[in-house]
Design brief:
Length: 495
């Protein structure tokens, strides 16, 4: 009998595949692997893989990957994944794909999916290394190779991959550096690439955004910054700077080991920091305990537009490092943060007039601009980030008062699928973020810094839901009343 055609209706297609499995006629079904219709080839390979009497071989399956049909490719990859030892069979095919000097978008997508799925296989690792070393490899293929290396679930990557990353970092080609530095950051174990990253950061002939990324990618034990580095990084702590650059600079400063003089210089930026930067900047002060600096820090926090984005626990943890006079001076600040739910309700009621009288066009500029920074994490239409919920139709889904609360007090409620988690490792490190994906031996958190942090399961001491959203609190203090009206008007218009 001829293979039945598939319909495009996924429920009917499932029924056809199930019927083929139950019929258990592999000799007839195998003819479907040669069909011109990719949907029929997909149905045949899935059914043959699950038939009781089938003897499906990798030689029959591997050629099916040479297709531009995404559904067929995915089905074939899943079949190969289920069979131990089949991955080497596809290595020659993948090598051919990677050697294509003008690959189309479908082929690039197929190569990425295949390499990520099988990057733990030695044969695939060798193919990746050879393609990285080949000067004729197409730029689009270089990009996916670097992405695969960053995302591959390996604690340590092969030595030849490390050598190629180092070589790419030394090219001086800014486009290639922009692609390579994120991979170097993801694989910079014990500061392996720190020497060349610092060289890039200090090379004033290279674009400043590339230099900033290089400083952020350092991961060695030496976290010191030169005064020139400090000046370079603080130049980004302005509203005119791109939101991601501001956050990256604040994160680098917060992780740095600064001298007392440098900490004193940074105080004035704490005073003006908004909710996007403040929490990161405060990391620089966790190891400092002098009374003079502590008193200046409390005074700066009192003026900071981003102060309300901090939690009581974070401020208490910070103040514990300082003498009693500093802790005493911080009590009014803690009182502000710990005012309670009733005060939040009163504040929301008093802020309700902000829901009227706004200009949605100006609100859109704020949403995508460098002051409110909403688009760094949220998508509206075809633009924006994917860290937080998609807001394309938020005005249709959320009531006006709900929108106001979500902007002013983002930790009051979470959109399903975007709940925050706190992970504490056995080394005492703490991370807060959205659980992005999991593997057998690791979890991945998407943080407020738009980083994907890999945490080995064996290293997790505690994993609990967090009461804090990764969206910072305090935007109503950062924006003027009219700007709040405009932003809320734009959110309400998204339907």
């Amino acid at each position: 009998a001829a293979m039945p055609s598939t319909s495009g209706d996924r429920f009917l297609d499932h029924a056809i595949i199930y019927a083929l499995i139950e019929l258990n006629a592999p000799a007839e079904t195998v003819r479907g692997l040669a069909a011109t219709d990719p949907a029929i080839r997909r149905a045949a390979v899935i059914a043959l893989d699950q038939m009781r009497s089938s003897s499906l071989t990798r030689e029959q399956v591997a050629p099916l990957l040479a297709t531009d049909n995404a559904a067929l490719q995915q089905a074939v990859l899943e079949v190969i994944e289920r069979h131990q030892g089949w991955a080497p069979e596809i290595a020659p095919l993948i090598a051919t794909w990677l050697a294509d000097t003008q690959p189309n978008a479908e082929r690039v997508a197929a190569a990425r999916a295949t390499l990520i799925a099988f990057c733990r296989e030695k044969s695939i690792q060798k193919v990746i290394g050879q393609a990285l070393a080949n000067s004729a490899t197409a730029p689009s293929i270089q990009t996916i190779l670097l992405d695969v290396i960053a995302r591959c679930d390996l604690t340590e990557i092969p030595h030849d991959w490390e050598q190629q990353i180092d070589r790419y970092l030394r090219t001086g080609n800014e486009q290639l550096l922009r692609q390579t530095i994120p991979t170097a950051a993801a694989r910079n174990r014990q500061g392996l690439f720190d020497v060349v990253l610092i060289e890039i950061a200090h090379n004033t002939s290279i674009a400043s955004d590339v230099r900033l990324a290089a400083l952020a990618a350092r991961n060695g034990s030496d976290r010191s910054l030169s005064d020139a580095d400090l000046q370079f990084l603080t130049s980004y702590l302005r509203n005119e700077a791109a939101p991601l650059d501001r956050l990256t600079a604040a994160t680098v400063l917060g992780r740095a080991s600064l001298t007392p003089a440098q900490l004193g210089e940074l105080i004035r930026y704490v005073e003006s920091a908004g909710p996007l930067e403040l929490a990161s900047l405060l990391g620089a002060y966790d190891a400092e305990g002098s009374e003079a600096l502590g008193l200046r820090l409390v005074a700066a926090l009192d003026k900071s537009p981003g102060f309300d984005s901090l939690s009581v626990g974070r401020v208490e943890q910070l103040m514990a490092k300082y003498p009693s006079a500093v802790r005493a001076m911080s009590q009014p600040l803690l009182g502000r943060l710990n005012a309670g739910l009733e005060q939040q309700r009163r504040h929301l009621a008093n802020s309700a007039p902000l829901l009227a009288g706004g200009d949605a066009a100006n609100g859109k500029k704020l949403f995508f601009g460098s002051k409110a920074t909403c688009s760094a994490c949220h998508r509206a239409g075809t633009q924006g980030g994917a860290i937080g919920p998609d807001l394309t139709k938020v005005g249709q889904i959320r009531a006006p008062m709900d929108l106001l609360e979500s902007v002013v007090y983002p930790s009051s409620s979470f959109v399903r699928g975007y709940e925050s988690f706190q992970v504490v490792t056995d080394a005492g490190q703490s991370y807060i973020g959205i659980l992005g994906r999991e593997t057998a031996d690791a979890v991945f958190l998407r943080t407020a810094q738009r980083e994907e942090v890999r945490i080995p399961r064996a290293a997790i001491d505690e994993l609990v839901p967090s009461k804090l959203s990764i969206m910072p609190q305090g935007f109503d203090r950062l924006l003027s009343p009219q700007e709040m009206r405009d932003l809320l008007a734009y959110l309400q218009s998204l339907k």
